[in-house]
Task: structure prediction
Amino acid sequence: MMNRQGRPTALPLSSSEIGETFTGNRALQVEEPLLFEIGSVDRSGVDFEEHEKLTEIPKELLRKERIGLPGLSEPETVRHYVRLSKFNYSIDGGIYPLGSCTMKHNPRLNEKLARLPGFSSLHPLQPERSVQGALELMEMLSDWLLGITGMAGIALSPKAGAHGELCGMVAIKAALEASGESARRVVVVPESAHGTNPATAALLGYDVRPVAAREDGTMGVDAIRDALKEDVAAIMLTNPNTCGLFEREIVEIAEAVHEAGAYFYCDGANLNAIAAKVRPGDLGIDAMHINLHKTFSTPHGGGGPGSGPVVFSKALAPFAPYPRVVREGDALRLEEGHGNSSKDGTAFGRLTAFHGQMGMFVRAMSYMLSHGIDGIRQASEDAVLSANYVRARLADVLNQPFGDQVCMHEVLFDDTSLKGSNVTTLDIAKVLIDEGFHPMTVYFPLVAHGAMLIEPTESESKESLDQFIDALRSICGRATADGGEAMQSAPLFAPRRRLDETLAARKPKLCWKADEADALAAE
Ligand SMILES: *Cc1c(COP(=O)(O)O)cnc(C)c1O
Result:
């Protein structure tokens, strides 16, 4: 039998035919036990000197039981972590089409620059005169982000998208309080929103008023108007939305929101579809977070933490938190502020200790400078092109829930075409693992039944997109051809077979206990 690359393959194996090796390992993939299970208390990676003074420790303070740490030599420790790391799928290993996450290539230039000692060895408490270069980079990054978004003010300190949402919504709350309108207790959120939107509103004590989308998957201004009662503080809208569609009535929605005396928070995590194409400031947005770790590379797991700067409209800019980079003559300064001591007295305070994720600022700035504004525009266009290529090539095997329409940077399918088979969205995801791909986002957004959200990003070649698409076409073909029984036991070739994800989520075992280890292994 030949596979699609024309290489001979083994006959298809059912799970019972795979068999076990003597060691439990599969070729060079080693079945790695937990650190605690390979260790031995009588071994150690370090030699401690016998210390006479130890005998002087008062008896009652001496440890009576074993400390319970695994005793490991250095090579054992190194192997353990290297083997575990090989279980990881990463953007450096293959296409990572996780919708709403923008897992794009992480240029090595970013890493090189972030590791410059002048950036990487800074201490946040260094005197300002010794960190002028770093402050200049923060100023430059602010200018670029404000230019790309057409907004008036910025807070660099939020450390992720969700944190940025909190920042923006706290600023909105502060602005409403300042104008004596704290009676507004409701935040309007479309049903298709990312879960972090209603969560942010709820965290700040707001009630969430959901609004349903139209048949085409976008928000209509009429439905929003109906929801905009006097009690509304803000709307939180994602654009492009989580169905991968551009909100075409966004300008009318912004006008309606402002007419109602509320603020417009835009979830800008998907900026990578529109960067340098549309300026959110021109759409009437008051606050928006930008996920540096999506739009400007360095995705989750790509070598660092997240960073979610927030840009503000003129109306909200005074409420942006400290610290702020300010220029005084030739020198740059971090305006820290204490209480309400800033010049305008309206900053809502601090969001984090210090000033944010410096390493991510450097990476984002490196990405922007190496692409230039024309390159950023092309990246947005190519991201949309890639998603539409995937869409078009899968159109005859998977269904778009809101009708055949052009998408932005990600394409949403539902499970309509699987009806009549025994295959679910989850099965498709698991078979994709066997085929060597990280699955797409599944079961999100909730507005599509059995959702499959694919975001290929601009950094995949046509060849790699074709390979992914061909695999998915083959899986869909198998699902409908034979009812897909075999798929229900996938993944067959992963280090772990299908897990009881509900049990794992509801009753996670977070503590290793020696006496439970054997029983667990048997489960
Ligand atoms: C990723 C994402 C978020 C949250 O960003 P984090 O950095 O993961 O906190 C919020 N909204 C949307 C639409 C996203 O895609």
In short: The mean pLDDT is 90. The radius of gyration is 26 Å. The pocket of pyridoxal-5'-phosphate is lined by residues 100, 160-162, 194, 196, 238, 242, 267, 269-270, 291, 306, 308 (CB under 6 Å). The first strand starts at residue 153 and ends at 155.
